[in-house]
Amino acid sequence: MLELFHQNPARSTQLSIQHDELFLDYSKNLVDENVMTALLDLANQSSLKTHTEAMFDGQPINTSEHKAALHPALRGKPEDNYHLNGVPVHEQVEQALKRVSSISEKIRQGRWLGSTGKAITDVIQLGVGGSELGPRIACQALQAYAHPNIKIHFVSNADGAEILSTVKGLNAETTLVIIASKSFTTEETMLNARSALSWLESSLGLSDAQSTTHVFGVTANVENARSFGIAAPQILEFEEWVGGRYSLWSSIGLCISISIGYDNFKAMLSGARDMDIHFRTAPFESNMPVILALLGIWYNNFLNAQTIAIIPYCERLTLLPAYLQQLDMESNGKSISLNDQPLDYATAPILWGQTGTDGQHAFFQLLHQGSHLVPIDFIAAINDPLSNRTHHRFLLNNLLAQAAVLMTGKKGKNTPAHKVYPGNKPSNMLLMNELSPKNFGALIALYEHKVFVQGSIWNINSYDQWGVELGKQMTRELMSDDSLGIEAFDSSTQQLSKYIHHHTQPSTD
């Protein structure tokens, strides 16, 4: 890489893209002009262009489930003219957003009251996967805009300690529970919902707490929410064509709007829409999602790198690696083509990461001197109103130093081998002016489209997730009284089940 910079002094300028308040410098990558030309040729020869138009046109690009993936319509405007089966969708999206606006503002203004007439001070979002990770990262990233008197709590895991410890510290009179599930049958979510309802009922002397003003349901299956007993005015719907990991832009974002206010929620949608337009209209060579995707394909498929690290230099983005794990690995963790044929090439890499500077004192040793090739996305905000100049200058200089040293390394004739930094380690640098709702929306949409581009070029379905279904089915077999019994499982599972049963203490339910 150093030789490439010496050969071309304008390299850093030429290998940079700016979109609004986001700036990408990808000059510290193991690519020259020939490689980039070949990668762009690959994109042009693939079905990317037609696949992109198919997505924005509402065609069923999720072929295994015969569904559209029209999540950009959730942040669209009337002039974007999104359709599904020839029917415009903007009006139904607007109606859903109006309900989010109305309800969230009532809660923020203290006008939504619990069963004893008190205003809401705490909101528990019950969901898993996209129904939890998206809202959680948005609320954490945008905490600078959060309501001072309303706290948002998230419970996703089936581990009872999580829901029980959460409600233990809350006042039921002023607590609102949001049950977020696309199908309204998700086992983990419904298990946690029953525990939360039991707490509300025992604390407040209620029966059927789900029908009170303490409970909302957010779902694509309104009938299931009604059958569960949630009052119709407290059911918010989103559409079947909204995938779970793309749902924070929908009614699933009710808790985001409660936290940061509807105007800021709309600004988040606006930032994502601007990125949609950039992705759809910019030439591939100056298209931020396309360039990130092609670089990922270069490392994954041609240089045999099996992982990618996401390192945000912002503590409020601590959940970004986890969020992108789901987005990328659930979307593109496939080994079968759109034609149902086995693939003979790699697809999604293993994505991981942590915030800097914490990561510098943990796994950066491997990044600098280890034997693995690990491309890195460094992400940071240039300005941070929640910090101060001393802290932020130190943080950003650490960021710049790490990326520079990973590339340049350090060698010398008299340098002991254990102090040699080989360098030539690739990274992208993604900067935003500050972590605002608009820029956060653009950041998330950027990675959504990156994942889509890679899935298109790999010729896979980025919008189903059949890989998680068999484990759920087996769990139901183990839980069901009508199952064939533990004898139907392998000897190891039988032994473990017997061991657990033998050591299980009497129930305290």
Structure description:
By secondary structure, this protein is an alpha/beta fold. The chain folds into 3 domains: 2-60 and 282-464, Glucose-6-phosphate isomerase like protein, domain 1 (Rossmann fold); 72-265, Glucose-6-phosphate isomerase like protein, domain 1 (Rossmann fold, 3-Layer(aba) Sandwich), CATH 3.40.50.10490; 470-503, no CATH class. Helices cover 44% and strands 12% of the residues. The chain is built from 18 helices and 13 strands. Strands 1-2-13-12-10-11 form a 6-stranded mixed beta sheet, sandwiched between helices. Helix 7 (160-168) runs parallel beside helix 8 (187-204). The longest helix has 22 residues, at 437-458. The radius of gyration is 24 Å and the shape is globular. The N and C termini lie far apart (61 Å). The relative contact order is 0.14.
Brief write-up:
By secondary structure, the chain is α/β, with parallel strands linked by helices. 44% of the residues lie in helices and 12% in strands.
Low-confidence stretches: none
Q: Give the count of helical stretches.
A: 18
**Which topology of the largest domain does CATH recognise?**
Rossmann fold
Largest sheet: 6 strands, mixed
Q: In whole angstroms, how far apart are the ends?
A: 61 Å
Mean pLDDT: 96
* Top CATH class of the largest domain: Alpha Beta
Radius of gyration, whole Å? 24 Å
**Which band does the percent of strand residues land in?**
5-15%
Shape: globular
CATH architecture of the largest domain: 3-Layer(aba) Sandwich
Number of strands: 13
